[in-house]
């Protein structure tokens, strides 16, 4: 799923933090407080990051 501008703006805080998946490891993290941040999931030397 590709994140659209409308989907990013429509993301509202919930009781728990959640993720909106993008492509190739990039996702939007929406915290319970309402803060939105971009995060990247990666693998380096067999260890997963983020």
TrEMBL record:
It comes from the Bacteria. Residues 3-46 form the Integrase DNA-binding domain. InterPro entries: Integrase_DNA-bd_sf, Integrase_DNA_bind_dom. This is Integrase DNA-binding domain-containing protein.
């Amino acid at each position: 799923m590709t994140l659209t501008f409308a989907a990013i703006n429509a993301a509202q805080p919930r009781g728990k933090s959640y993720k909106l998946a993008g492509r190739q490891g990039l996702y939007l993290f929406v915290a319970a407080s309402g803060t939105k941040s971009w995060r990247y999931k990666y693998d380096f030397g067999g260890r997963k990051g983020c």
